[in-house]
Amino acid sequence: MKPVQQRYDSLAVARLIGAVLVLTYHFGAIELKYGGDRLVSPLLAYADVIIDLFFVASGFLMATVYRRTPAGLPTAADFALRRMLRIYPSYWLVSLLVVGVWWLSSQRLFHNMVGTEPHLVSSLLLLPSPARPVLQVAWTLVLEVYFYLGFSALLLLKPSWRVGGAMAWAVSVIVGGLFLRLPPNQPGLILIFSPYTLEFIGGLLLGWALPHMRRHAPILALCLAMALWIMGMALTGFDPARKAALSAPVRTVLDGLTALSLVYGLVAADIRRLWTCPARLVAAGDWSYALYLIHTVVIAGVCVVWRKFSGPGLLDNLLAYLAALGLSLALSALIWTRLERPICRSASKIPIWIGQLSLSRTRRGPLPIS
To answer: What is the pTM assigned to this prediction?
Structure first.
């Protein structure tokens, strides 16, 4: 049985808005260095819940697309190939661009991103490593690759067993996180027992449970998400530094539940047809991954120009932000149309052979774009 792809317009728009919020936050993080003033409020750091939304939404979409697919190695291989083709090409393009400029400029440009001794193999393959990846946002992609490996293992199970497998995975993460000492020089173990995994698994469970729900309460879920988000701000005194100091389990509970409520609220709103998202925004949601990858590179480039005319006041900050946002959106649209979309279309025509089993071209749906 082929994967079933269903689009949720609100979720697509939320991913785009989330990527813009991440861009805005990263712009604000370097704003004082170049602008002398601050256009972006420090409170925007609380919007980091959008990263949790990405993890929950990823699990939800995977569960939805592959909910009824049969167990076996062909299904797992099909999923893995689709995911790798979705994640790696754009990531390699941006990463190699940064490394190339860094090398051609005698390690002057993008030095803060690449460092002096970059670990290119682990960075390009998105492997856990003590060294940071070339793109600072790639830490989330390392987690995503791990999530996809775990989900591939679940696809080896019968559909009726997958919920139990996911629950066992969650229990192992909780037990490991609570009772094992994870030394900082063991990035693989830290990855395996990352509390972010629970958010991905929460998305999986939501995706599997959704078809069995007879009633939906989108407004209640969205209000709950807002209440949890405000409660998290209040509990940390509206001080982002205090939130950053929270333990990983506490932060995951606060932001994970917020993201889970938000994802369900948006999906339920689409099911109930509470609103209609503008078609252009929905289409632009496909750019969100490229926007997430490219924006730090664009901001770094804009800062090279910005520092030459920066001064008191917020006008130069605003112009630099608009330049970074506009250029990032334009480049992400270009990457989607010229690279990602053609790969997505071509992937459905690639047959996978495993022993004497194959997934025929005619039975394969479009590549999931989440």
So the answer is: 0.91
C-beta of residue 59 within 8 angstroms of C-beta of residue 266:
no
End-to-end alpha-carbon separation of the chain, Å? 20
Q: Where are the alpha helices (DSSP H) in the chain?
A: 9-35, 49-65, 73-104, 111-114, 120-125, 138-154, 162-179, 187-192, 196-209, 218-235, 240-244, 248-272, 279-284, 288-309, 315-335, 341-347
From the first residue on, what is the mean pLDDT of each consecutive set of 10 residues in the chain (370 residues)?
Answer: 68 96 93 80 93 97 91 91 94 95 88 81 93 91 97 95 97 89 84 95 96 92 96 93 87 94 96 93 95 96 86 88 97 97 81 42 37
Q: Which H or E run includes 361?
A: none
Interatomic CA distance for residues 280 and 291, integer angstroms: 16
Cα distance between residue 229 and residue 254, in whole Å: 8
Amino acid, res. 125: L
